[in-house]
Amino acid sequence: NNRNSVLIKDLNSERGKRGALTKKLNRVHAGTCPCCNRSFQNLQRHMQSKHPEVAGDPDQTPIHTKINSKK
Fold this sequence. Notes:
By secondary structure, the chain is mostly helical. It contains 4 helices and no strands. The chain has helices at 2-29, 43-50, 52-55, 63-70. The N and C termini lie far apart (47 Å).
């Protein structure tokens, strides 16, 4: 019983993380900046000009890079 409850908590935690990531991906895909929460028609240009430290570091926000590479 105790092991099952730990597994359920872990599963719920993973689902929560996945849901949060999906929400962030959807917002970025819609043009919302993950840093300043403003909307842009050209998010990639905004990220390169206003957040170059994040745009150049794939470990910090890989989301916009992944979305732009799929297009």
